[in-house]
Amino acid sequence: MGRHRAETSDTHLRRVQVPGRRSRRRWPVAALTTVVLVVGGWFGWGWLHARIAEAPAASVVSCPAGDETIQVVVAPSIADAIGRAAAAFTDSRPVVTDHCVRVNVSAVDPQTVLTALQAGWNTGQLGPRPQAWIADSTLWTSRLAAVSPGTLGDTPQSLATSPVVLAMPPDAAKAVMSTVPPTFADLPALIAKANGWATYNEPAWGQFTLALPDPAANPASTMAVTAMLDPATPQGQPPITAALLGSGQVKQNLDNLAVGQPSGSTQQALVTLGKSDGIQGAPFSAVPVLEVDLYERNLGADGAAKPANVLDEVRLTGPTPFADFPYTPLAGNGLTSDQVAAAQGFRDFLRTAAEQTQLARAGLRVAGGTLAHPDPSPGMDWGSASQGPTPTDVTSYQQLVAAWAAASQPAK
Asked: Mind listing the pLDDT tens digit for each residue in 39-59?
């Protein structure tokens, strides 16, 4: 016990005899405490500030009416681009009429969509009935409106465009582009010649031939034939009439164009032409096609195998028909006003400047003069084309299809 007290006493004496040592030992502790408090306060304020900043955002994405999922059916040529946009739209947590909106996209060819919307949507084959439709041409939605006007929830609005061009083997395209390319109105006379390729200084190539798959199901053929048969108004304005189709040179041109055409689709005609490595031996010289469809065909991004040979884009001189890719909110058959509003909200998103640039990068042409184009894009030059009105008159279309079918029949 005495030893313990003595050691304690000595320690006390040493502390008394060495002034300042206690303060030197305590100042690091005080400094460290100050740093901890400052840093902790800074992080605390940062956390509190973040919570305050996030509070309005949380209220924006609240969905008092719950979730709303809309289905959009899309022409296959732009399904990937619209699918990407739908994912971006959904991720932005949009709220329309107090609903958080989710968009699902499916690719269905326009003829199938038109038939299903008119005759009854088969959910087992096609999935849920859509709240919006993006066809490749207003011609389809005009036909729907003519038969089922209550099916349209709003006026169709174009999202982007794509001109009708000719797809040709590279050597053939080079020959045509070495001079002034023809207009659509020039093509019937060129095709009628026994040695049309002499026009482009290639007499050994023989006749200039054009594949025109059935206009009843291929909008590129519809627009190309309309432009060829009505030179005064290449886009069918005013509408083509039965009298025009049955008159003189127009009827002769129609007969020359329709006979011997391949069956199937424009895509199938492109696949066939792409099997030839040049114009020699090719089954035909060219195929009218939407520019975006040719771009996807050259990449093998259209559902068919990548082509052995890339086809070149040839833009014709003069007024050119364009597909206009209308966005159409649908209505009827149990669709609610909230679903129509949600479909309209997605349409408005697709028309923003940022999304328009993305559509241009997917091979479409958009308003605003954007210079964005896909890269790579073999065979394409994305040059300017003179845009005219798109044929949308249903009566003209029906008369053209009937006249084409009659002209296609072999002579008896």
From this structure: 444 444 444 344 433 433 334
CATH number, position 288: 3.40.190.10
Tally of structural domains, the chain: 2
Rounded CA-CA distance 353/345 in Å is 15
Together in a domain, 93 and 129? yes
Do 221 and 310 reside in the same domain of the chain? Answer: yes
Residue 51 lies in a domain: no
Least confident piece of the model among 183-187, 244-248, 377-381: 244-248
- 68 three-state secondary structure: strand
- Spatial neighbors of 168 by CB under 8 A, at least 6 apart, are 176, 273, 279, 285, 286, 311, 312, 314
Cα–Cα distance for residue pair 409/255, rounded to 1 Å: 9
Contact 284/208 with Cβ under 8 angstroms?
no
In angstroms, rounded to a whole number, what is the distance separating the alpha carbons of residues 83 and 279?
Answer: 37
Residue 98 resides in a domain:
yes
Whole-number Å distance between alpha carbons of 67 and 104: 13
Q: What's the whole-model pTM score?
A: 0.82
Work out the angle at residue 343's Cα, subtended by the Cα atoms of residues 338 and 349, and round it to the nearest 5 degrees.
125
- In a shared domain, residues 198 and 280: yes
Output the DSSP codes for 35-49: HHHHHHHHHHHHHHH
Q: Are residues 127 and 193 in the same domain?
A: no
User: Per residue in 94-127, pLDDT tens?
Assistant: 998 888 999 999 999 999 999 999 988 999 999 9
The span from the CA of 207 to the CA of 202, in Å, is: 10
Residue 7 lies in a domain: no
Q: What is the pLDDT of residues 149-164, one digit of tens each?
A: 889 999 999 999 999 9
Q: Residues near 183 by Cβ (< 8 Å), separated by ≥ 6?
A: 231, 234, 316, 317, 318, 319
In a domain, 277, yes or no: yes
* Spatial separation of the C-alpha atoms in residues 160 and 387, rounded to whole Å: 13
Answer yes or no: are the C-beta atoms of 398 and 242 closer than 8 Å: no
The two structure tokens encoding residue 180: 């002034």
